[in-house]
């Protein structure tokens, strides 16, 4: 089902939605954008081609999240927030990443109640990328600029309008007041999508990537590609599919908190005995790359990267994950 | 460590909280040391150190973040350090650290250095009460006192 | 964790019912924990299988994983033996009887007991890692389960006699006719009547038959490293050798990401792996 | 390719060939626009990969403490890098005789954020041409004055020339203006304490604790950083104000007398947090109080590692 709205009507639409639920959308913070709870529709900033710098996974897995509060010696869970909210303007790559993270947090055996509550109270309204960036590579890893996986609604910029695609029933509830568009619009959208896809070159070959990386496991390749890595957490903290966390007790505040953690830090895997399975940066780089391009494939047969390009754009030493994979594909394994 | 300050409190309800870092050698007279060890008012938290040289700037920061309204650092006068030179290295570092906190917006009156000579009996009491008076005027410390629960207060 | 895992991060409240030093250098301490919640107790014993571990939790010190050292039939308590190592273990060593502690579990897969039915079991342990093997041995010793398995051989090594755990109970195993026990210490001591030498050498000396047998190895990495080839030389197939692994853990339920070896998580897919499984995983331990 | 690059490549090829170094640290061409990558050259044949231009934003000295100590290392140095290396030598982190410093002049590093602010985000390529930077984006083309794009730290750089390099390629530049260098700190100090605190908070609260600033800094080589300490825990590890403010204060203070004001921390930050004003303040104080400037030689101890009896006149109470 398709609807449409003029681009300059978007502020009013958000204002209208704010009466129904909290609206989280990209807004300006200095020179970049982040998702925040908007008070007015005019705080929205979606004109730049780029993604928000801080990934929207933080809306579901906050960087620091209170798990329990200490009360009379007992750990008490915070009240679960189930007020509905709308996340507007999330890019298809980031929404796709949330579906990948669901496979981690919502397994049959153990459901993460914090993640589950945030997911259930959210309607995801996506924004298609008619003009993908140079650092994007979603088409390479099996997603695309108009991909709807994980979304309830997708907004597609078409000239002066947004064409609105209803993806799920849940999303339909927000669109009732809008003007419908006949399904024939699809051909125009497909044309636009093709144009966007064509502007995205295939960054690397994904066939046999898993097998290739396994073969490289003990190869000098890792030393080579990790040589200039600083070992900071930029790539993993900004990554929409990285989910590792640490649980710490903030004693003075009486809280048990979980914080994002990253495999790029030495202390991530440091054991009490002093042994560290990944003592140097090449092992940590290997863990990061292989988790995304081998281990995810092992567990759910999908690449654990959605091609958002944040790690590429914000790496302080200009390391490019696409380049690393290309190098891996062309690397001669010494048996 | 001082208790976390509740937000929105004011000085009319309570006395200013002072964290006193004291070099264990600087109070020569029995009376002063006894007073510090046993009769310190409850709004003053004593942290005794073997020498002011032991005071890591992190100690001061922790006290400030934990909600102390004022910090007093009390040690031997120059050239009379029990360890000969511990207070020299401390003074360079701690003085600059205080300057630095002030640069980030902390109030200079909230950190006080007191270098006490052997003869100065009763000075520690005078210094503490004078600092307390200053802090009364300044009100509760806001800058850098940040140890609040995540996402606002717990209901 | 009370009903249906509503919040898998929430520790159940436990009370320390017994606490005593296991070794004469006070580096090992055993704790027996009682459940404060009846439903916690039911949940635990409905799911517990030897070889599993629990996350013990002390607020302000964090959480750490420990293997369970008791069998379910021993009573409504859970036993752990803790070696003093880092921040958390130092804190737990300070706890006394009647102190409270949090516990999450049982976690992990445990030993594949059903798969081992009808087989000879060769249990090889060293140091404080023997605790889960102790739980396994205790489990099998129960009359209800003993007939499910054939011969039982236990090889247990420690650095010296002072570090041997569960002394009295293990001493009584010599009197049992349904099992063989081989204890070893690294260097000779007066009045030590059993083996002297490293565990891999003792395994070669005892030379258990690989026919219809599985070997379960648990110990410090260096012991495991040399015991596995010893067993392989004796003719044990990689599918018939099992070991239990550990790594730094936080959540214990396969979410926080840090205890992986390749695609497998030690907390969720382990801690018990067969050698065959390990050989198919990358060497990332 | 510039003359400087030609010169650099031949020099690197020479020292690798004659075996005077085992490895050369420099920059190679970028994979994404505006972000040349640090590179490690071991074979003289690879010397042709080396580049040097205003977009090279890292402080290469940060890699020195990560490379094996026994290796003889050649390293391309600009002013700040050479001073970092001197500071590392003062702290016994490296031996001067194992290093071969290839000095290059530096006209200041171009801040990619400023390029993006002026030209927009979809940049395809950018190159320097004397004092102009030509930027091509998907839609159009810009020519921007180089001076408008300099990173803040570079705009007020005091010593652009490498200090005692083994060889100097290119021409020496005039020294920086000390008044300009102090300007940011001076202006900031004039603000009220509320305003200063507000600015500090506003910057620190964006911190995501990725520690890129730490890793990018040549002087942050501690094996265990205070934030990684488990026992005692020095500070909160959450992104709460307490945690991020403590990080920014202590990180900066640990740099007192050690920071060379290269600004690599600020350039590495993914959240555009201003932080050089903190270290600049400390540097400025140490310059005024003790006449100390970091990295100007390989022997002077920083003020906090030394003290003097004259100090007693320096403090009031």
Task: Provide structural commentary.
The complex is a heterotetramer of chains A (335), B (155), C (285) and D (317). With 155 residues, chain B is an alpha/beta fold. In chain B, 34% of the residues lie in helices and 16% in strands. A 4-stranded parallel sheet of chain B has the order 2-1-3-4, sandwiched between helices. Chain B starts with 17 loop residues before the first strand and ends in a 17-residue tail after the last helix. Chain C is built from 8 helices and 15 strands. Chain C is an alpha/beta fold. Chain C has 2 domains: 12-107, Elongation Factor Tu (Ef-tu), domain 3 (Beta Barrel); 120-244, Rossmann fold (3-Layer(aba) Sandwich). The radius of gyration of chain C is 18 Å and the shape is globular. Chain D is α/β, with parallel strands linked by helices. Chain D has helices at 3-17, 79-90, 112-119, 152-155, 178-190, 193-204, 212-216, 241-254, 264-268, 276-290, and strands at residues 23-28, 37-41, 50-51, 73-77, 99-103, 123-129, 132-137, 141-145, 167-168. In chain D, the strands form 2 sheets. In chain D, strands 1, 2, 3, 4, 5 and 9 form a 6-stranded mixed sheet that branches. Chain D has a 3-stranded antiparallel sheet with strand order 6-7-8, covered by helices on one side. In chain D, α5 packs across α10 (276-290) and α8 runs parallel beside α10 (276-290). At the A-D interface, α8, β11 and α10 of A face β2, α3 and α7 of D.
